[in-house]
Design goal:
Chain A has 6 helices and 3 strands. Chain A is mainly alpha-helical and 150 residues long. In chain A, α2 crosses α5. Chain A binds a DNA duplex (30 and 30 nucleotides) through α1, α4 and β3.
Chain lengths: 150, 150
Amino acid sequence: MAEILREIGMIARALDSISNIEFKELELTKGQYLYLVRICENPGIIQEQLLDLIKVDRSTATRALQKLESHGFIEKMGDPGNKKIKKIYPTEKARKAYPFIIRENEHSNAVALAGFSEQEAVEIELYLRRIRENIEVDFESVKKGRKRNY
Amino acid sequence: MAEILREIGMIARALDSISNIEFKELELTKGQYLYLVRICENPGIIQEQLLDLIKVDRSTATRALQKLESHGFIEKMGDPGNKKIKKIYPTEKARKAYPFIIRENEHSNAVALAGFSEQEAVEIELYLRRIRENIEVDFESVKKGRKRNY
DNA sequence: TCATTATTGTTGCAAATGCAATATAATAAA
DNA sequence: TTTATTATATTGCATTTGCAACAATAATGA
């Protein structure tokens, strides 16, 4: 069987590291850009849905969002219809930062896919989506404490 | 242009999270399995080469290796011919843990590639290798402080 | 209805992470 | 040879990370 875990890990760590370094000039610290882009694209999203888009621990998200809020990037609003949830909205400051993040990400994406034909790029995107869909099932269940057998 | 960064990030975080949870029964804490497998497969490797195989910060690696050593998983030995480097070797304890890690990783790999034909699996492995080779150039240079233009 | 379970969110604490600065040895350059 | 530069490894410090435990509301079921 082809081995893809290590390559994916290397790529993800390298890309994340690059982004974290480059986003310091936006006064975003480690990991925050992940939340910021998704909140800008999904204003009113709640934390639990955000977890799904990012695949990170609940508590990590709570803390990251607290920091984003205290630094004026987002606002959390309670919902009168459902007191359990808090809807998250980007501030003007976040919307200002957004294009820079996207531009950086697009650049990294282009670097990553250098030498790929349009055809190949589409193909790998589809492959990755399938892999993500495959693995998120186990992620959910292991996070909930279920044991896998192997 | 196809967008692959987010999928890769989600997959990597999910897989890493699963592994970290599952390797607690080996008394390995977050991230340590990464180093352990590579040291078992490359006995005598030095930290600097390990960074290259993993894509992580120097200082993070130092600390992870210190912990692995203090917990009896590895040994670091100075080289008489080159006093700058320290060769890293797995202990018996590490070699005992190794097969479990591999088995878990192979399982995750199989889950990730569920529904892929042999042909597709090979194809994505090659794609990922190309992407990793593309991105590691930027990783090295950004880590060294060079600014990218975009 | 009322009890049980699931969902959503937060905190305590211990640990990992990573930038910046440092140290030391090896190599290159002057 | 002496100086400058590069390679390798470590540490200080501030921060993020994440399991476990908790809290509060909502949804389900008996």
